[in-house]
Amino acid sequence: MHNYLDFEKPIAELEGKIEELRHLSSSNGVNIADEVGKLQSKVDRLLVTTYAKLSPWQKTQVARHHDRPHAVDYIQGWITDFTPLAGDRAFSDDNAIIGGLGRFWGHSVVVIGTEKGVDTESRVKHNFGMAKPEGYRKAVRLMKMADNFGLPIITLVDTPGAYPGIDAEARGQAEAIARSIETSLNLKVPLISVVIGEGGSGGAIALAVGNNVQMLEHSIYSVISPEGCASILWRDGNLAETAATALRLTAQDLFELGIIDNVIIEPVGGAHRERNQIIEDTGNSIKKALEELVQHEGTVLKSQRRDKFLAMGKRGLG
To answer: CA triplet 243, 247, 228: central angle to 5 degrees?
Structure first.
């Protein structure tokens, strides 16, 4: 059973009818295959037309969908011999950021991701994907380890932003994020980043300063959430839809602006409808980028990454 978004009500009604017919068929032996086939064709067409014209706010809803694959799903789908690593060696572990060592289709890699959790218990455990300073310091530790051993890094971004609590600020949230960005810029190994859901604020860019940055088709990436933007600019969180459009946070906008390098096409109806397919497609896209990057020397990778992000600032000033 799907969790439907507000704009998917017509799809929900049709799929509800299909389920009713199938239940009827199984209970009394009536052959309703033709009718189900017609309704399914309508659903397929409606999914195509609906998802071909999503607004930025609707894409935001899809990016936050509860059933969308999370970092743990991608890691389980790609990484063999995965060994999770915990702790920042200074304060504690942070479950909002997960990471470790493993093999990605023949390559030994370090993988780091923000994890939101899938139900109430796991969301609380992972703090809804909002990392505290120790999370970013753990990421820095893993990045430096990867650099020391010459291991490529894959990061998976899905966070509304860094945790904004007083305790996080007291432990140096801004410094921890800045240190993660600084470390990313100085790496001499390939760093590939993929925004798989939400890419929110500095909490996202702390893991996304990559040689190659990709986004799923219906993911979002922005300096602030639409709700936060609306609250600051207009003192009205209800204007989030307007803010989403103004922020140009969609993968298509960011590719056009040169902020990201590739848009990974999602299955019709979003990544949550064909989880295995999007995990495979995303893995293929990373593999392609990785095989190109590993051909370069470390100093070249470092320079390319720094030049890439400096160029973004120059475009903004222009």
So the answer is: 50
Answer positive or negative: Cα dihedral of 209, 212, 216, 222. Answer: positive
Residue 265 CB neighbours (<10 A): 12
Encoded amino acid at 310, one letter: L
Give me the residue spans of the domains in the chain: 14-53, 60-317
Give the residue-averaged pLDDT of 82-107.
94
Q: What mean pLDDT comes out for the span 289-305?
A: 96
Q: What is the pLDDT of residue 26?
A: 58
User: What is the β-pairing status of strands 97-104 and 107-114?
Assistant: antiparallel
CATH code of 60-317, in short, is: 3.90.226.10
DSSP 3-state assignment of 310?
helix
pLDDT in tens, 54-75: 999 999 999 999 999 999 999 9
Nearest to 200 by CA among 310, 64, 74: 64
Position 31 scores a pLDDT of 62
Let me know the angle formed at the C-alpha of 57 by 51 and 60, rounded to the nearest 5 degrees.
80
d(CA 133, CA 144): 17
